Amino acid sequence: MIFRLLGGALLSLVLLAPAVAQLTVLDQAQDNAGGVSAAPPPVCGTQPLAIARMSWPSAALLAEIHARVLASQFGCDIKVIPGDLAATGSSMGSTGQPAVAPEMWVNRIAELWNPAIEAQMVRPAAPSYVETSFEGWFIPDYVGAAHPELTAAAGLAAALPTLNGGGKVRFVSCPPDWACALINRNLVRAYGLGNLVEIVEPANRFEMDNLIGEAVSRQEAIVFYYWQPNAVLAQFGFRPLDMGAYDEANAKCLASLSCPSPAPSAFAPETVVTALSEWVFTDIPTIAGYFQRSALPLAEMNGLLAQLNLPGATIEGVADRFVAERGDIWRQWVGTEGP
Question: Are 67 and 106 within one domain?
């Protein structure tokens, strides 16, 4: 009798065991289904995002503009810090901070930039500007309107005799101790303009701007050298002349005092990028994506610099105005990932 009772109890336990196990599994599954999943990482990370504000106006404007857009559109905690090419490039390459340098002229710090790239500490997100050519020759827009055929430096030899009553046309170059002065002298020879232009080399940047401004106010037919981004090119109406392709060998000769036979070449292109520390791409890819879309047309920056020259204007005020008025530009940077 005892054995029958024990056998029955054991049988009952055996029969119940699968059901208990099944119930336990179901309960665990239900617990997991009803639990709260891990929250996604913050779009901007958990620490303030440091952006280098370089000392020159265009880079400072970019830093303040990006700080405002990232804060308003992504909720980022932004820290804008002082920077310069060498110190910022060195710090990003060794420590990964700051996270962003919006206008890095990498050709000028190649000895810092290239090792940092090789060590996978920094990476260019995008060009700072849509265009890559920053130097060239320009004509006032009224000259271009009167001579629509004049679109390239190579066309100057044919066009100049029809300007300025057949007399020599002033070519406003840069100060004589600047490298561009020598290049411009050799380019005048390369294009066969020696008997058609009077080369004027101002003593300094201030005199250079005054000469151009005075010529424009007189509606004088001039040709001049300039670079971008720059306020002057937004304050008056100018047209760039096509300088043709960049030829490395020709450009090397143009930069030499003893260039025997100058041949045309565009000015050397510059690599100007928005630099990000590598961890931005891996840890906060949405923000990296924003910067990969953030190239600004040079004409826009020229306009911002012109605003900055107005009485009472500040970097911060011009950045505020850009964000308030130029959503057509910066919303493209935010893209579909922005809220």
Answer: yes
Q: Do 163 and 85 share a domain, yes or no?
A: no
Residue 60 lies in a domain: yes
Assigned token pair, 320: 């505020």
Q: Which domain holds residue 240?
A: 135-254
Contact by Cβ (8 Å): 173, 199? yes
Is residue 29 included in any domain, yes or no? no
Sign of CA dihedral 307, 312, 316, 320: negative
Distance in angstroms (rounded) separating the CA atoms of residues 46 and 23 = 41
Q: Give pLDDT tens digits along the chain (339 positions).
A: 333 433 444 334 333 344 333 333 334 434 444 455 566 678 999 899 999 999 999 999 999 999 999 999 999 999 999 999 999 999 999 999 999 999 999 999 999 999 999 999 999 999 999 998 899 999 999 999 999 999 999 999 999 999 988 899 999 999 999 999 999 999 999 999 999 999 999 999 999 999 999 999 999 999 999 999 999 999 889 999 999 999 999 999 999 999 999 999 999 999 999 999 999 999 999 999 999 999 999 999 999 999 999 999 999 999 999 999 999 999 999 985 444
| Same domain flag for 213 and 292 | no
The enclosing domain of 85 has a CATH number of: 3.40.190.10
- CA separation for the pair 55, 324 (Å, rounded): 24
Bridge-based pairing of strands 169-172 and 197-200 is parallel
Q: Which of 53, 51, 52, 64 is nearest to 313 (CA)?
A: 64
Nearest-angstrom CA–CA distance, 111 and 93? 11
Residue 87 falls inside a structural domain:
yes
| Residue 85 backbone phi and psi in degrees, to 5 | -55, -55
